[in-house]
Amino acid sequence: MNKDIINKIQERLEIGKKSYSDELDINDGRDWLQESVEELLDGCVYLSAFALKIQERINFENKSNKNKKNI
User: Fold this and answer.
1) Whole-number pLDDT of residue 27
2) What's the pLDDT tens digit per position in 14-29?
């Protein structure tokens, strides 16, 4: 399991390296705390959207099952 986590981190670093043609430069002037907060907030938005999709599917399936029982 830990190896899977490490692999995911390595994959992200490789994507960054390909996107920016370099390794991460900790001295590039960015506010790393602010960057992290923004990324975490984006992640919250994405997870919330995913949760809403799951809830819609559950509601649809419950409604479909209820209608089948009434037939």
Assistant:
1) 93
2) 999 998 888 888 999 9
Q: Is the dihedral of CA 17, 12, 24, 45 positive or negative?
A: positive
d(CA 26, CA 16): 13
The answer to whether 14 and 21 have CB atoms below 8 angstroms apart is no
Q: Which residues contact 49 (CB under 8 A, 6 or more apart)?
A: none
pTM: 0.68
In 1-71, the DSSP E strands lie at: none
Site of tokens 């390595």:
10
Rounded CA-CA distance 52/50 in Å is 5
